[in-house]
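Folding Problem: From Residues to Backbone Shape
Fields: amino acid sequence; protein backbone structure tokens
RECORD BEGINS BELOW THIS LINE
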Amino acid sequence: MECRTPSGPVARIDTLAFSVPVKSDFNQIGLTATVLRTGTVEESFLWSGTLASGARIKLGRGGVVGIEASLPKVAGDGNIEALTLSDSLDVVRELVAEVVRERVTIDRERCGDPMRDAKVTRIDLPRDFDGVEHIPEVLDGLAGVSISGRVKKSRYADAECNRAETLWVGNGKHGGRLYDKARETARLLLGSRAPDGRLRFEAQLRSTVLTGVWARAVAGHVRQLGDLEEHKLRALRRASFERYGFDQEVSAMATVADRVWTAEGLSERQRRELWCFLTMPGYQSRAARDVVRRYRQIARSLGVTPHAAMSEALCPLRVRLDYDNGKEVVRAA
């Protein structure tokens, strides 16, 4: 169960990227070289590779080594549960030791203590919602919420994550992602899966945002590892959740209506009959058996097949994600 304090659910971290100043000589064996500014006097190499732990590294630009990793995966937890701040810093300490052991020498003149002075370049802050029964409806509804700022929205089944239903809102500097965590992990071995109904929110923030006006107003800047503090991470995560409109209440009925009235290959009469089949009490018991069979197949192909759990969703409902409790709140419209 998610531990909580009066100020909200504890901060957790998934992906973290940071950079450490290093000496110019480093172990290049096994790394991939990319030529930058080919054929010019500024031609240089960018070296990239993977540590034994699975963390990704980049060397050769700005005299630093960049390290990026999903900390739960490095810790061997399979990324089912994100790590607390304390556990995250323990993993970061191990990553610094690993990259020093395998690849580089830290430039102590520019970085006296990597655990304090290393620059944070990206951080993903997740919040899980369990027992969500209307994941497609929530994602579809939130995709239509109007928010301020220059952001893009994308609603899709993520091919890289077992086709998990996903909503992305943001741009290249910051973003928020809501996705079906249970579906993403369904292909993993038994015992390593997220529970059914888990919807995960991730605030994905890069250095330009973490050191900008918005972050300063929300909680204070996060420039270095030493700036990673519990209250800052909690505030940044919650502010991101609200910034992308994920705290809004949406209509669960909107998804069903949209799928029915935009379904290809159906006549207007068939759409009306399908709508009655899905929403009108007693329609299935009065319709002919072959009609019921046909519309049940069509509904299944549209992803709105009636079943015991769906009967509630087919009523006019309003759905909201309760950030503090990590639950879905459903009420009659």
Notes: Residues 305-314 have pLDDT under 50 and may be disordered. The chain is about 30% helix and 30% strand. The first strand starts at residue 4 and ends at 5. The longest helix spans residues 85-102.
